[in-house]
Amino acid sequence: MRAIFARDYTRQPLMVVAREYVVGDTQIELGDLVTVRLLDQDVTFGIRLNARGDGPELWRGTIFHICRGEQSIAWAEGLEIDDIVEISRPEIAEIIKHNDDSGSISPPAV
Description:
There is one protein chain. By secondary structure, the protein is mainly β. It has strands spanning 2-5, 33-37, 43-52, 58-68, 71-73, 75-76, 79-80, 84-88, 94-96, 104-105. A hairpin with a 2-residue loop joins strand 6 (75-76) and strand 7. The protein is globular. The mean pLDDT is 85.
């Protein structure tokens, strides 16, 4: 996961290592809510997708929720709520479709 806009971080691109998951056949669309989990910590980011990224499997979105374990937190790894990030398709742990009531879709971990 790469920060596109992160407050108070202006020097170098901010990269956060996320776990990767098997890419299923679920189509991702703008407006979907996705979950990204960090590789080395119990930190989870909730992100709403709002644009295509700069590559074929990249998406941009806004962080709306961050938690460490069961506790909601305001920032982690230099990122905070309302920051804009770019994520790759394999980094998406769960998808909640913006136009569907069926619940989340979770692919298996790699």
